Each structure stands twice: as structure tokens, then as C-alpha cells.
Amino acid sequence: MQTTNLPFRTCLNFGRSFYRMFDGLEFQFAGTCTYTLAESVLQGWHVEVTLKNCDYWTTCRKVRDVTCFILIF
After folding, report:
1. Mean pLDDT, residues 14-41
2. Which residues form the VWFD domain (predicted)?
3. How far is 50 from 59, CA to CA, in rounded Å?
4. Which of 37, 38, 42, 73 has CA 20 to 30 A from 20's CA?
């Protein structure tokens, strides 16, 4: 069995709706939508975040769904 060590990458959320992606680029997602943060070329996995509408002065809860699929040949 052959294994490949891939470099470790992270993305992060800060503030109400700011995201720093795996490649270092920053985005602001302000709508109440589901956004895809990352996805494989073969669509074997994806990372998405769903934002809920909240008042500016209250704590805003963000729901993060991480779905992983493994392709077996």
C-alpha cells in the first residue's frame, strides 16, 4: 500500500463573517447561506459552513458541517 503525506493546511473564522482560506486568501461571507469552503477535484470531500442570521449585538451561532467521503477503487 502506498501512502502520501500531504502538507497540513488550515482555514479559520474570525469576527462575524470573515474567513481565511487554506491558501491564505481572506473572504467575507455575510449572507444567510451555505458556503463551500473547500472541495476536492473529484468531489470526494468538501467543507462547508452554514451561516444563520443574527442580530449585530447578540452572539451569533454558526453551524459548521464537515462531510468526508473516501473514494475506494
Report:
1. 78
2. 9-73
3. 16
4. 42
In contact, 46 and 22? CB cutoff 8 Å: no
**35 vs 7, 39, 66, 72, CA distance in Å?**
24, 11, 12, 27
Measured in residues, the chain has a length of 73
- Quote the cell numbers at residue 42: 473529484
Distance of CA 60 to the CA centre of its chain: 17
Task: Please report the DSSP string for 8-46 in residue order.
Answer: P---EEETTTEEE-TTS-EEE--SSSEEEEEE-TTSSEE
The Cα 60–Cα 4 span in angstroms is: 39
Amino acid at 15: G
0.70 exceeded by pTM? no
Give the Cβ contact number of residue 33 at 10 Å. Answer: 10
Distance between CA atoms of residues 71 and 25, nearest Å: 28
